[in-house]
Design a protein that fits this description.
By secondary structure, the chain is an alpha/beta fold. The protein contains 21 helices and 24 strands. Helix 8 (302-319) runs parallel beside helix 12 and helix 8 packs across helix 16.
């Protein structure tokens, strides 16, 4: 087999190749300098040496080092560090793996040589820039790729109401043809007691949401007593020259009767729909296009196929006078040489490095570091360490582009060019900052698949490989795997940019058609001490065994409104997402089951329709572990109920799924709250 047919070299000078398919042990490979045999079976996306690598020598990808050899590697040796060997053994791959690692991670802090720094020129603009069909905005907001009416839950306490109001206008476009729809923004911040650590960041992000060019009008809901409320938001916007008055809006305080609140909110949305409908789409110069670049569920091909394709889309946008935004700070640590290869000026380079250093320091406060970033799934899919992951992520910056601006999370992009924005590596939180900064289109690369799609900013999903694209073709927009099969990257880039203009002009992305919609702000830093924490060495690793459900004795009786009448024919499914991302799928399942229930078992005067409900789950910024759901269950005294429910499969027909009459109806399914149950997530 020819080496070029079954592998890729990100840089011709690299000494490690990436397998584009599973290669069996003993396979003979032919290269330009001779032939060699593979020492072990090599998984798709994993690396193997293509030449002799001496002890202490660097292993390279994209021309940059990611490890140092701890023993000699010959051509054909499976490249493995301790982390990768652990991942392979845990997955029971079914073939022999190397007994010990042959390299250790290499991470050398980047040193900027200020004495020899040379500012770079940005690419020349096209003489005849293209246009897209968009929506003209006042107040310096540019032009939108969509025209949405947004119902904003200003704090976490009003998110459910925002979803309920938006759901009431599912068919709004039938009456208001210039409006793309009514969407809800429900997030997890600003509803606690006391002033949150991320107060200014939250207000800046919400202000950016309101003024994003894709917003035709907004209704903001609060109770008025939260730390993050409408008055505080309006004051922040006016004191920071954020053009609130250029956006048709209403700020509504809730209180008292729920039914009256809902009616007031619906009436307000009706008025806002009429206002937003007065703006039709018209040809707009691409200088109004602002691209947010993201990656998630990454694999070894992210930096080889999909991210370079994203980089071409961003490059072409900037050459037409637009802007592109690169984010995810902790996923660029180790890629400084690539990002800073071309920079506008020394101050910009210094600000970029200082942003990374500050982020690393805050990680240290929590006993973590940027080098621990790759997830288990990343590692198994070929991202051995943060150096490989970061270098691949940085390929979203095309080598022809220079870095123009460095901004904070959610800070508005006022000028054209290429931006870096400080943000966490969590996709949803990072995208929220880009949307707040003014991005009106998101381009998202993935190797494992993703359901991420912002409620009012369309997301283009680019898959890294053909096999996964074919598996997820109803969730992905573009297949960058064609590059791995021999198609020229520039040809794919031309197609991808044309597709991006189509999406910006109103064509629905795959995620929009699938109904994917999520929003999450950057979570608050819980630790405020400016000192490093020492990681716990005795931390017990998860064993995969579920926690036992405690039975609490002598539980006091519940109020009458929470007790289920013995003769009631109430049925319920409880769907418990175990992460923030899973919450969207759980909500979509619940909504679908509810619709089926309404068709099969319509509600009567004395018998409510069976419900499928979802528990809310928050995701920590730096932990891959979801917040525990058991406290919700225990606090509701639902253990006996769930122990019965757990015996039933989630897709059991409604007609055969019935809770025992002696169990307790959880409050979220009680008569007083059943109408809001499906919106609470």
């Amino acid at each position: 087999m020819k080496l070029a047919d079954i592998s890729r070299l990100p840089n011709p000078e690299d000494n490690c190749a990436i397998a584009v398919q599973r290669l069996e042990a003993g396979t003979e490979l032919l290269s330009e300098v001779g032939s060699f045999l593979l020492s072990h079976t090599v998984l798709e996306g994993h690396r193997f040496a293509i030449k002799l690598i001496e002890v202490g020598a660097e292993l390279t990808s994209w021309g940059l080092p990611f490890g140092r050899a701890v023993r000699p590697l010959k051509a054909g040796d499976y490249v493995c560090n301790e982390t990768m060997l652990t991942a392979l053994r845990a997955r029971h791959v079914g073939f022999a793996v190397p007994e010990s690692p042959n390299f250790v991670d290499y991470f050398q802090p980047y040193q900027l040589d200020e004495s020899s720094f040379c500012p770079a020129e940005q690419m020349a603009l096209y003489e005849k820039p293209r246009t897209f069909e968009g929506y003209t905005r006042m107040g310096g907001r540019g032009a939108g790729t969509r025209n949405h009416v947004v119902v904003l839950g200003t704090s976490s306490l009003t998110g459910s109401m925002a979803r309920m109001v938006a759901a009431s206008f599912a068919n709004a476009r039938e009456r208001f043809p210039n409006v793309d729809g009514v969407v809800a923004i429900a997030h997890t911040e600003g509803g606690e007691q006391g002033v949150p650590n991320n107060l200014d960041l939250t207000l800046r992000t919400l202000a950016g949401f309101i003024t994003n060019p894709n917003v035709g009008a907004v209704l903001a809901l609060d109770f008025g007593s939260e730390p993050v409320n409408n008055d505080a938001l309006a004051e922040w916007m006016r004191s920071h020259d954020s053009p609130l008055d250029a956006v048709p809006h209403q700020l509504m305080h809730l209180g008292g009767d729920h039914t009256k609140n809902l009616a007031r909110a619906k009436a307000a949305v009706e008025e806002l729909l009429a206002q937003a409908n007065q703006t039709p789409s018209t040809p707009q110069p691409i200088r109004h296009l602002k691209i947010g670049m993201q990656c998630g569920g990454s694999d070894a091909f992210s930096g080889v196929s999909a991210n370079p394709l994203v980089g071409i889309i961003a490059r072409e946008t900037v050459r037409h006078g637009g802007a592109a935004n690169l984010a995810e700070t902790d996923e660029l640590m180790g890629a400084e040489p690539w990002v800073l290869a071309k920079v506008r000026d020394l101050a910009t380079a210094q600000k970029f490095l200082q942003t990374l250093a500050t982020f690393e320091a805050k990680l240290n406060w929590h006993g973590a570091s940027g080098q621990s970033n790759p997830s288990g799934g990343n590692i198994y899919r070929g991202l051995y360490n943060i150096a490989i992951k970061s270098i691949g992520a940085a390929r979203k910056k095309d080598p022809q582009m220079r870095l123009d601006w460095v901004i904070d999370y959610g800070e508005r992009m006022h000028e054209p060019g290429f931006y870096f924005m400080n943000s966490p590596g969590n996709d949803l939180e990072s995208i929220a900052g880009q949307v707040a900064a003014g991005c009106n289109l998101i381009v998202f690369s993935t190797g494992n698949g993703s359901i991420t799609n912002h409620p009012f900013v369309p997301t283009i999903k680019i898959m890294t490989n053909t096999g996964r694209f074919n598996l997820l073709n109803r969730d992905m927009d573009l297949n960058a795997g064609r590059y791995l099969e021999g198609e020229p990257m520039e040809k794919l880039g031309e197609e991808a940019f044309d597709y991006s203009i189509d999406i910006a002009s109103g064509r629905r992305s795959v995620g929009e058609r699938a109904g994917h919609s999520q929003a999450q702000l950057w979570r608050e830093w819980r630790q405020t001490a400016k000192t490093s924490a020492t990681p716990k060495q005795d931390r017990v690793k998860p064993d995969g065994v579920p926690l036992a459900c405690k039975v609490i004795p002598n539980v006091p009786s519940l109020p009458a409104e929470l007790r289920q009448p013995a003769a009631a024919a109430n049925r319920i499914r409880l769907i418990i997402p175990t992460s923030l991302c899973a919450g969207q799928i759980a909500r979509m399942i619940a909504d679908k089951l509810d619709r089926l229930a309404q068709l099969k078992l319509p509600a009567t005067l004395h018998c409510r329709t069976p419900r499928a409900v979802v528990l809310p789950v928050k995701q920590s910024t730096f932990s891959s572990k979801p917040s525990p759901v058991m406290p919700y269950i225990r606090s509701l005294n639902a253990c006996s109920y769930l122990s019965t429910v757990a015996k039933k499969r989630i897709m059991t027909p409604f007609a055969t799924f019935s809770a025992p009459t002696t169990s307790i109806t959880p409050p979220w399914a009680s008569p007083a709250s059943s109408s809001m149950a499906a919106s609470t997530a």
